[in-house]
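Sample entry follows:

:::
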Amino acid sequence: MDPREGLSIANLVFYIPCLFIAGWVSFRHGFSRESGWIFILILALVRVIGSICQIVSETSPSTGIDETWIILSSVGLSPLLLAMLGLLLRVHASMSPASPLSPNIFRLLGLVPLVGLILAIIGGIDEASSNPSKMSTGLDLVRAGVIIFLVIFIILAIITLATFLRLRSVSAGDERILYALALSIPFILVRLIYSIIVDFAGNPQFNLITGDVVIQGCMASLMEYIVVILYLIAGLVAPHIAKSNVPPSIGMLETGYNGQQSGQTTSQYPEQRFNQPAYNSLDGRGSGGTAPSQQYMDTKPQYTSGGRQDRRQRRVHGPISYLINRFA
C-alpha cells in the first residue's frame, strides 16, 4: 500500500465518525456559522471527499480526480480558523454586556478566512495547470492566502488569551469552550507552520503531492485531528442555548438572553420594587410614613387604577419612572 494512500485511509477512519458527531453537535447548537461547529462539519466532509478521491486516483488515475483531491487537501486552515472564530463569538456573547468587542468585529474577522480560502482554491487550481505562467500565479495566490491565515490566527489567538482576563464574565458552560480554544492554539500554529513551509520554503519533503507522508501526517493531519477532537468535546459538553435565550449582542437572533424577545419592553416593574407604599400627595407621606424624597430613591411609584389623584400622579411621575426603568 502506498503511504499516501494509507494516510487517506486514516483520514477516512477518523473523519467519517467525526462527520456524524459534528452533524449532531451542529444540529444541537444550530447550523449558523456563528455557532462554529458547522465548520468542523464542513472540514470533515472535505476530508472524507478528498481522501476518497485520492484513493480512487491511485487505482484509476484521472486529471479531474487528481485536481480535486489536491485542492481539497490544501483546504484545512480556513475551516479551523472559522470554527475558532465562531466559538469565540459564542463565548463573548455569554459575556454580554461585559464583552469589550462588538459582534460586528467578529463578523468582519469572519470575512478574512473566506478571502484566504478563495485565494487558496483559485491558486490551487492554477498550480495544477501545465501552463508555467498559471502555475506561478497560482503559487502567489496560495502564498497570499497563507499570509491571510497567519494574520487572522494571530488576531484570534490574542483575543482568546485576552478573554481569560475576563474569565469571571464568561458563563460557566462556555468556560469549557474557552479552554478548548486556548488548548487548540499550539496545534493550529503547527498546522499553519506546515502550510508556510510548503508554500514558501520549496523543500521537496514538504510537498502535498510528493513530499514526506510522515511529516504531513504529523504536522498537518494529526494537528487537525487534535483540534477537531477538542472542539467536538467542547460542543458535546457545552450547554445548549435555546433560541429564546441567545444573547442579543450576537446580532444573529431576535431574542434576548433572559428569554425575553429582543426589543420587548417590560410592562411592569419587578415585584420586589413594590415593597414600599405609594406616595400620597395629599398628606405628604406614604401610608407607612416614608418621606417623599427617600421614597423615590428607594422604589418606583405604584399606582392603582382610577381616581383624579392617581391620574395626576401618573402625569407627574409616569415619565420619570419610565426613564428610570428604561436606563437603569
In short: The first strand starts at residue 279 and ends at 280. The mean pLDDT is 75. The first helix runs from residue 3 to 29.
